[in-house]
């Protein structure tokens, strides 16, 4: 069986390959986790920004504009009543 002689003790090559494979897997897993965390953070911020903009748009259209319209109509009605009352 081939041996790796450069280490402090001679180790069989398949053992070295298994250990290196496990270490590489751990490092790739850590790097993948960090990459996923960064990507999810970016997506979360973008989704929140888009959601807030769309909610603001709908609230303006469905609530604020409607309330302003009603207030304008009420103000006009009050003015007309004041004119009619004398």
Any key phrases for this structure?
86 residues, mainly alpha, two-stranded antiparallel ribbon, 1 helix, 2 strands, 85% helix
Instruction: Report the sheet with the most strands, covering strand number, pairing sense and barrel closure.
Output: 2 strands, antiparallel
Mean pLDDT: 93
Radius of gyration of CA atoms, rounded to a whole number:
35 Å
Label the overall shape.
Answer: rod-shaped
How far is the first residue's CA from the last residue's CA?
A: 113 Å
Based on DSSP secondary structure assignment, what is the total number of beta strands?
2
Q: Report strand order across the widest sheet.
A: 1-2
Low-confidence stretches: none
How many helix segments? 1
Strand content: under 5%
List the helices and strands and how they pair.
Elements: E1 3-4, E2 11-12, H1 13-85
Antiparallel strand pairs: 1-2
Describe this structure in words.
The chain is mainly alpha-helical and 86 residues long. It has one domain (13-76). It has one helix at residues 13-85, and strands at residues 3-4, 11-12. A two-stranded antiparallel ribbon has the order 1-2. Strand 1 and strand 2 (11-12) form a beta hairpin. The model has no long low-confidence stretch (mean pLDDT 93).
